[in-house]
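tokens incoming
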């Protein structure tokens, strides 16, 4: 028997409505320690980034660091409970004094403390293209780069610019995806300092080891993803390397992206012509 069928039995037929059903569900969840995803507290931390900037990776890293668990055996369903995704969760349970949320949104008044993960936008966009194709959406990489088709919430340079402007004066820790690759212990130590938690290097390193690229792929194969839209024949953890856009984005599109995003790329230390290094 489904939840809906049970609720119809509880609610008298002549009083049944979707509104009444939702009231009962919400009451049950609140009585069992759950909150609606819209409920936030001032000390909460928001892990924000443009899609495919390493958001899922850092979500897993933070899960291991916060809770000291062996993330080799951490399925995505549990990750979404420990670090709720505001785009996929309707309710969540507060476990610590503060909750970390994963988000792709632009600045929000309630986002007072933010970890902004940024990745070279050209790599992000190529990875984003493969993701939305795996979800069955009809678009081309050219349409994404030039027209912004299929991109939520906005183009990469606009996302970065608005968070740089920081109109609600959030406290922000910026973490570059590339730095998380090259010096993960140092970057995750910055995270611990930012949120005010004490963790040993061993605890942090265990989370890093459990979320290496190979281990993330193994977890995907074993547990899958808590995403009903995802084509299980496609890999979510696809390449994970830096500069792969040079192999997957044609020169015309690279030039277009560079011209549009030059200010943001250079401000964040990205070379417009990395092949000339």
């Amino acid at each position: 028997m489904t939840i809906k069928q049970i609720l119809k039995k509880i609610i008298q037929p002549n009083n049944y409505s979707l509104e009444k059903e939702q009231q009962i569900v919400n009451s049950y969840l609140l009585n069992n320690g759950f909150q609606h995803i819209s409920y936030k507290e001032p000390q909460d931390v928001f892990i924000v980034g443009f899609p495919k900037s390493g958001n899922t990776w850092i979500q897993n890293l933070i899960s291991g660091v916060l809770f000291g668990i062996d993330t080799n055996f951490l399925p995505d369903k549990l990750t979404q409970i420990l670090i709720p995704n505001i785009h996929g969760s309707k309710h969540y349970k507060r476990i610590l004094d503060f909750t970390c949320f994963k988000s792709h949104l632009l600045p929000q008044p309630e986002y007072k403390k933010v970890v902004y993960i940024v990745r070279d936008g050209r790599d992000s966009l190529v990875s984003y293209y493969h993701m939305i194709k795996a979800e069955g959406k009809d678009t081309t990489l050219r349409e994404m780069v030039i027209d912004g088709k299929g991109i939520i919430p906005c183009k990469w340079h606009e996302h970065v610019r608005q968070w740089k402007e920081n109109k609600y004066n959030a406290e922000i820790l910026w973490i570059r995806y590339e730095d998380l690759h090259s010096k993960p212990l140092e970057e995750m130590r910055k995270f611990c300092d930012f949120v005010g938690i004490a963790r040993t290097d061993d605890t942090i390193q265990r989370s890093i080891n459990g979320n290496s690229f190979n281990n993330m792929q193994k977890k995907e194969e074993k547990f899958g993803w808590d995403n009903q839209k995802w084509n299980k024949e496609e890999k979510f953890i696809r390449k994970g390397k830096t500069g792969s856009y040079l192999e997957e984005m044609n020169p015309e599109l690279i030039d277009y992206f560079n011209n549009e995003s030059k200010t943001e790329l250079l401000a964040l230390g990205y070379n417009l012509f990395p092949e000339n290094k």
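note: The radius of gyration is 20 Å.
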